[in-house]
Structures are given as structure tokens and as C-alpha cells.
From TrEMBL:
UniProt entry keywords in alphabetical sequence: ATP-binding, Cell cycle, Cell division, Nucleotide-binding
Classification via InterPro entries: ATPase_AFG1-like (IPR005654), P-loop_NTPase (IPR027417)
Official protein name in the record: Cell division protein ZapE
Pfam families found in the cross-reference section: AFG1_ATPase
Gene Ontology cellular component annotations, sorted alphabetically: cytoplasm
Coiled coil: none
GO biological process: cell division
Length: 344
């Protein structure tokens, strides 16, 4: 017998040590590899990206030459300490980044950009550097610069890690030199952004969102009664269902730090939302993006009533500086809603 719980009743706590211990791919990407990635035959850059990442993995696992071999041995092609996967959402960047992580021996770390900034906030910049500089590989998914503080901090973090010999790998929807554009006065932080960009060789991945490739449109929302009935039925089948009114949930998220959202949904098998409405405040919308990412990581189906989830964010937001974040969230939420519709 399962149960019905409410996310708004949860107040999770997470220590800095817990955050660091969680730097590995989510269950969705727990067993992926380069061989399980399915490149689109119409997009040769996807196959090329696999070759580039395999070569990068080999470079991580190959000790740097020393002594006379470094001075007189054959000179290897110059390679920057990091590799940066640039492409639209849904082309498999996270799959490839997780495959790289699995292909390299540890110690190693894998987390989203937000999780690394949360780590620095939880344990101080110096301690975070001291912890991460002992790693052979640091993978950063969804690299984004949202404000000047992030820019200065991540520029310094990437430089110190690369100076310590740590290999870096990142994914993003934006080229390194264009990070921060449309979100803050990035022109005032050209030096920091350039220092950050200099750490990476860029690999472009073209293609359409695989989550919607050849699939029908997202299912229409159901009624509140249907949400409640589906939640009851799932609980009867032994599932743990998080049933919440979205308006109340949005307010609750403002009282829970995003670094705790992974813990917030611990043990949840299905999410049931009543009264989805368009979010018009940027701070609320950005927090909901983090929740969407954590639900997608865990592959948690969504059953929802109210507005369709492709209207979760206002038109102004979908055309603004954070549009790529919102499009990614809508893409992921749509996929989870499709799974929830199948469950119903």
C-alpha cells in the first residue's frame, strides 16, 4: 500500500557533506554510456560529439608526460583542460556528459551548475575548491550565468581547478563567450567570461528535441477530480504520490532553498498537481525550473489539472533572457506529463 503525501508539508535539510556526496548522475542517467546514445543520422555533429568525448575520456585517464618524455617526446595536439557541449535542449547533452563521467575512473564529480553554486554557498569557496581539486574530472550540466556573482565565482573556480590539473566538462545552451547575455550587464564582466571560456574546447551538437521527436503533442490537463482519483489509484498500487495545489507549492518553494529540492522529492513516485497556472514572477519561475529538473532527473510522472504545462511560464518569460531555461523546463515537464497521462 502506498501513500499520498504533500510536498508543502516537507522541510528538508541538507548538509554540505550531503551535497558533495550527491555529485553523481541521477538515476535517469545512472547506467548510460556512449553506446546507449542514439545519434540522429540526420545530424552528423551528434556522432562527432561521441568521438570527441571518447577522446577526451582517454585524455583524462592518460597521465600527463613527465621528465624527458615531456621535453623530447612527440608533441600531442594542444587540448584545453575542459570540453564544452553546446546545443539546444533535448539533443542528448546530459546523456553524453553522464556517459563521459561513467567512462572515467574517479575520483570525479557530476552535478548541475546550480548544484555547484549551492555547494560553494554551503561550504565556502575555499573549501569547495579544496574538495574538488582532488578530483580527476568535474562535470557541470546546464552551465548558465544568471548574475554577476555567479560569473565572478565560476570564473575563479574553473581557473583554480584547471590550474590544479582537474579536467572539466560542461553542457549548455549557450556558447561560453555569450554566457550571461540578456540576463545582466555581461559586457561589464568580459574578462571573467573570457577567462571561463578559455578553459574549454567547444563541441557543437545540432538536432531537435528528442523528447518530442515523432511524438504527439503533450496531453491535455485533466480535471481536479481526475487528479485526485489518479492519486488514489496510484497509492492503491503501492506508489508514493505527492499531491499539491500548484499555487501553494509555488509559495512553499520560496521557503526551501533550491539545493534541497532533490531531498524534497525523496521517495516520490508520482506527482499530482491541481490548478496549474501561469507563473508571472521571475523568482518563482526560476525556482520551478529547478524543481522541474529534479523531477526529470528522477523520472517522476506528472498528472496535472489547470493550465497546460506549456503555459506554465508567461509569454514575456519565454521570450526573455532566461528563455532557454524555461524552454528546457517545458520540454522536460511535457515529457513527464506524457508519462503521467499514460499512467492514468
Amino acid at each position: 500500500m502506498g501513500e499520498i503525501v504533500h510536498l508543502v508539508d516537507r522541510q528538508p535539510t541538507v548538509s554540505a557533506e550531503d551535497l558533495l556526496a550527491g555529485f553523481h548522475p541521477s538515476p535517469r542517467f545512472g547506467n548510460v554510456s556512449f553506446d546507449t546514445y542514439r545519434p540522429d543520422p540526420a545530424q552528423p555533429s551528434q556522432t562527432e560529439a561521441v568521438h570527441e568525448l571518447k577522446a577526451f575520456a582517454a585524455s583524462v585517464d592518460t597521465p600527463a608526460p613527465s621528465g624527458w618524455r615531456r621535453l623530447f617526446g612527440p608533441r600531442a595536439a594542444e587540448r584545453r583542460p575542459g570540453i564544452y557541449l553546446d546545443g539546444g535542449f533535448g539533443v542528448g547533452k546530459t546523456h553524453l556528459l553522464a556517459s563521459l563521467w561513467h567512462a572515467v575512473d574517479g575520483p570525479k564529480a557530476f552535478g548541475t551548475f546550480v548544484e555547484y553554486t549551492n555547494l560553494v554557498g554551503a561550504m565556502s569557496f575555499r573549501r569547495a575548491v579544496d574538495e574538488l581539486r582532488g578530483y580527476r574530472l568535474v562535470c557541470i550540466d546546464e552551465f548558465e550565468l544568471d548574475d554577476p556573482g555567479d560569473t565572478v565565482m565560476m570564473s575563479r573556480l574553473m581557473r583554480e581547478l584547471s590550474d590544479a590539473g582537474v579536467k572539466l566538462a560542461a553542457t549548455s545552451n549557450t556558447l561560453p563567450g555569450a554566457l550571461g547575455e540578456g540576463r545582466f550587464a555581461a559586457v561589464d564582466f568580459k574578462r571573467e567570461i573570457q577567462v571561463l571560456a578559455d578553459q574549454f574546447d567547444v563541441v557543437r551538437i545540432d538536432g531537435e528535441d528528442y523528447r518530442h521527436r515523432g511524438l504527439p503533442a503533450a496531453p491535455e490537463p485533466v480535471t481536479d477530480d481526475a487528479v485526485a482519483a489518479a492519486a488514489d489509484a496510484a497509492a492503491q498500487r503501492g506508489r508514493t504520490v505527492a499531491l499539491d495545489d500548484v499555487e501553494t507549492l509555488v509559495e512553499h518553494l520560496s521557503r526551501v532553498h533550491p539545493s534541497r529540492y532533490r531531498r524534497l522529492i525523496d521517495g516520490v513516485d508520482v506527482v499530482a498537481w491541481r490548478g496549474v497556472r501561469t507563473i508571472t514572477r521571475q523568482d518563482q519561475a526560476l525556482r520551478f525550473v529547478v524543481l522541474a529538473d529534479r523531477l526529470y532527473d528522477r523520472d517522476v510522472p506528472i498528472i496535472a489539472s489547470g493550465e497546460p504545462l506549456d503555459r506554465l511560464f508567461s509569454e514575456e518569460m519565454m521570450a526573455g533572457g532566461y528563455m532557454k531555461k524555461y524552454f528546457r523546463a517545458v520540454s522536460r515537464l511535457t515529457a513527464l506529463t506524457r508519462e503521467g497521462g499514460a499512467a492514468v
